[in-house]
Amino acid sequence: MAFPKLRRIDAPAAFPVELSDVKAHLRVLHDDEDALITSYMAAVVAELDGMDGELFRCLAPQRWEQAATIGACHTALPLGPVDIESVTVEYVDDAGLRVSLASEAFEVVAAQGVDDVYVRWLSGAPTGRQAFIAYDAGSEDIDPAIKAAIFLIVEDLYNGRDAAPARERTIASLLKAFKRDIVVD
Questions:
Q1: Rounded distance, CA 12 to CA 5, Å?
Q2: Distance (Å, rounded) from C-alpha 16 to C-alpha 18?
């Protein structure tokens, strides 16, 4: 059974911003366009969130699986922020079945905060085996700059205008600190 190197297991249950907050930003006092505004929110979040998102990070809680080969060094978990306590590892045994790896055979390390997390293989880990590392990423509380950028992009879509160059620079500036440049094989 082949898996991509990184895949989402569970999508976020909610948007990283509330519809009521977006409507307040837009100064919309009625519910007539909730479906339209929600579709804009979905489009903006899809553009920013997860493996294919512009920021290459998780904006709301979701579960991911990273394929790896158990080896002498470590395996990075590229999408953050990672809930370190949520990390589980399965490996493929001789019969081709996925089996849970004992927590004593690996260690989860946060190198420079929760955005730089990796799994270090310890003695007892079956070296050379295919492994699947599952973890929760994302947070209930996203940075205010990311929220502001989401509000501004939804506003541009809602108002039907092309984003002015100044607006594009403002949004890019708000999001620059959060963009991760990670290459996933």
A1: 20
A2: 7
